[in-house]
Write a structure and sequence with these properties.
Length: 278
């Protein structure tokens, strides 16, 4: 079963992002539990950040913000299609206008479609690139100028272990896009390092997030959630699946001053899966 919002997030609250302005894309969740975006938003707020949250699902977005506000945090929300350039540009301008600056950007938007080079339609290929890659590109495009004006910042992009290796199913559009996110981060990191902007990538493996029940079980296992969970867990050397909280804590490190000398690299959060040969 997925974890619900009554399951607390582990770890002390140390104020690691105190006073920071953080923009988090994909901050909702496709179902109850700790997806990558929701967990990141809540953890960042608990660590002292004022969070600006974007998602195309208003109800899910507000559920994330409500959790933050009930805990005494500050959250602003915007329903947004992060693949639309004009909307993204306007959103970052509004965030900077309201907060005065942007310190942190986290891109959590993504989603997969099954199919290899033959089976995947051209329409789905284009949509996969827009959803998983163009979204990150646009956010970086409009966040970097604000960070330069602020004297620096930290960007964390979310990729996937599918961008590093085969992960059990053909999903060529998703895999290609997430591999490109990693290189987008590296190139952007080098170019804007002189401006004090760090850019890194979190690479989650096969986590048990709400996406498993909401979409993947139907795509991969005929709707059999337990079958899919068993298949995914069998690939993980640690013998259990993490969830969105594990992605979020990696993002927290990369966004914090603890990672002040870390840029242009990746943290793989996969229980050792990509280190295996089989």
């Amino acid at each position: 079963m997925t974890q619900d919002l009554s399951d607390d997030l582990p770890g002390p609250r140390l104020g690691r992002l105190a006073g920071r302005i953080a923009v988090i894309g994909g901050a909702g969740s496709v179902g109850p539990g700790w997806g990558n975006g929701r967990a990141t938003a809540v953890i960042f707020a608990r660590e002292g950040a004022t969070v600006f949250l974007a998602d195309r699902d208003k109800e899910s977005l507000e559920a994330t913000a409500r959790q933050i506000r009930e805990e005494g945090g500050t959250a602003h929300t915007a329903v947004l299609d992060v693949t639309e350039a004009e909307a993204v540009q306007g959103y970052f301008a509004e965030c900077e206008r309201l907060a005065g600056r942007i310190d942190v950007l986290v891109n959590n938007v993504g989603g997969s479609r099954p199919g290899g080079a033959v089976e995947l339609s051209l329409e789905d290929w284009d949509n996969q690139l827009r959803t998983n890659l163009t979204s990150a590109f646009l956010a970086c495009k409009y966040a970097v100028p604000a960070m330069r004006r602020a004297g620096g910042g930290a960007i964390v992009n979310t990729a996937s272990a599918s961008g590093l290796r085969w992960t059990g199913a053909a999903q060529v559009g998703y895999a290609a896009a997430k591999a490109a996110v990693i290189q987008l981060s590296r190139v952007t990191a080098v170019e804007y390092a002189p401006d004090g902007i760090r850019v890194n990538t979190v690479v989650p493996g096969q986590l048990h997030t709400p996406m498993v029940e909401a979409r993947l079980a139907r795509q991969r296992a005929g709707g059999d959630v337990e079958k899919l969970l068993a298949q995914r867990q069998a690939r993980i050397p640690l013998g259990f699946m993490g969830d969105g909280r594990d992605t979020a804590y990696a993002a927290l490190f990369l966004a914090s001053e603890e990672a002040r000398f870390v840029t242009g690299t990746e943290i793989v959060v996969d229980g050792g899966m990509t280190a295996r040969c089989d």
